[in-house]
Design goal:
One of its GO terms (cellular component) is plasma membrane. With about 350 residues, the chain is mainly alpha-helical. It folds into 3 domains: about 90 residues, Dna Ligase, domain 1, CATH 3.30.1490; about 80 residues, no CATH class; about 150 residues, no CATH class. The chain has 14 helices and 6 strands. The protein has a two-stranded antiparallel sheet. Strand 5 and strand 6 form a beta hairpin. The termini are far apart.
């Protein structure tokens, strides 16, 4: 009888404890981390020392009864006010770890992207101090130039993941998207590979201030390539200047030859100049069918598009030179080209 009574009492006490609230400290929520190799016994004993788990033997008994004791997921967990012991147990078994997020922005270059990744405190940093080539080697693509190869997006991760994990996911996401979109491209584009489309998309990304203009800007660049005209786009010049760019671009910068100076060289630059988003890639693969050959910034993020050099020069005088006539890059350079 005594055994039956004691057993019944223990069972009732066990059931009651599992549905009781966790006695969290005043500074709740409480975050704790489950490290690789941690056992359930170690976890509950550590929390018992903090006063959070009052009856660790009941939690261990639950693990034996359910067979879930080995289903503990590594990561960080957050205990909130009002949580019951059952909630804590289910959270462990289901791996409801804290999720962090990192957003890679369209238009960032590789250096800017790496700065964002390497200053994210929850990521394990494995690439600090490494060259671009070694970083690419770490994700299995040492033969690839890194610029533009990563998909701009928001990536969720848990503590314990590394910068290499994020880079690998972003690289694979871009590769997959390009592979999916390339067969759907418009006919007769002036580039022959997905990589050339990526280069074009990066230029469109950097030139676009108004999203609705992406397709038109891509159409302008496609028209210029097809006519043998130089692209003459400032973002490529700026990229080629590297650390010498101080926020202003001068006429002598447009004349200084680099592999990325599309005022001095024809065709596409050798690599992308930034990380394009999906919309810019779509525009590069589906440019607007237009007769425009030029565009100039209005100063509000939008552009004025022109079909001929004379109209473009007038637009430059109006929007860039505030009505003052003086020599400028497209006026001088385009006269010397096949325009």
């Amino acid at each position: 009888m005594l055994a039956v009574v004691a057993g019944s009492w223990l069972w009732m006490d066990y059931r009651q404890y599992l549905s009781s609230p966790l006695p969290l400290p005043d500074e709740a929520p409480l975050v704790f981390e489950v490290e690789p190799g941690s056992s359930l016994k170690r976890i509950v004993n550590d929390l018992a020392e903090q006063g959070v788990i009052e009856k660790p033997r009941y939690i261990l008994a639950n693990a034996r009864l359910t067979g879930n004791g080995t289903r503990i997921h590594v990561g960080e967990y957050r205990l909130e006010t009002g949580m019951q012991v059952n909630d804590f147990i289910n959270m462990l078994y289901q791996g409801k770890v804290i999720q962090y997020s990192l957003t890679l922005i369209e238009g960032w270059n590789f250096k800017q992207m790496m700065e964002a990744i390497q200053t994210t405190p929850q990521l394990e940093q494995k690439t600090l101090g490494l060259s671009d080539k070694v970083i690419m080697q770490a994700i299995g693509h040492e033969d690839k130039h890194p610029e533009g190869r990563f998909m701009a997006d928001t990536y969720r991760f848990t503590r314990g993941m590394s910068d290499v994990d994020i880079l690998t996911r972003a690289y694979n996401a871009m590769s997959k998207y390009l592979a999916e979109q390339w067969p759907k491209r418009a006919d007769d584009l002036p580039y022959d590979t997905p990589y050339e489309a990526l280069i074009m998309a990066s230029i469109v990304e950097k030139e676009t201030g108004v999203p609705d203009e992406r397709d038109t800007i891509a159409g302008v660049f496609v028209n210029r390539l097809e006519k043998g005209m130089r692209l003459q786009t400032d973002p490529t010049v700026i990229y080629g200047m590297g650390d010498d760019y101080d926020g202003n671009i001068q006429r002598h910068d447009l004349r200084t030859d680099t592999p990325y100076n599309t005022y001095t060289r024809g065709g596409l630059p050798p690599t992308p100049i930034a990380m394009p988003g999906r919309e810019a890639i779509h525009a590069a693969l589906h440019p607007e069918d237009t007769e425009y050959l030029y565009f100039v910034s209005r100063g509000d993020g939008s552009h004025y598009f022109s079909k001929n050099l004379e109209e473009h020069n007038q637009a430059v005088i109006k929007y860039q030179l505030k009505g003052r006539k003086r020599p400028f890059s497209s006026y001088n350079n385009d006269k010397e080209e096949k325009q």
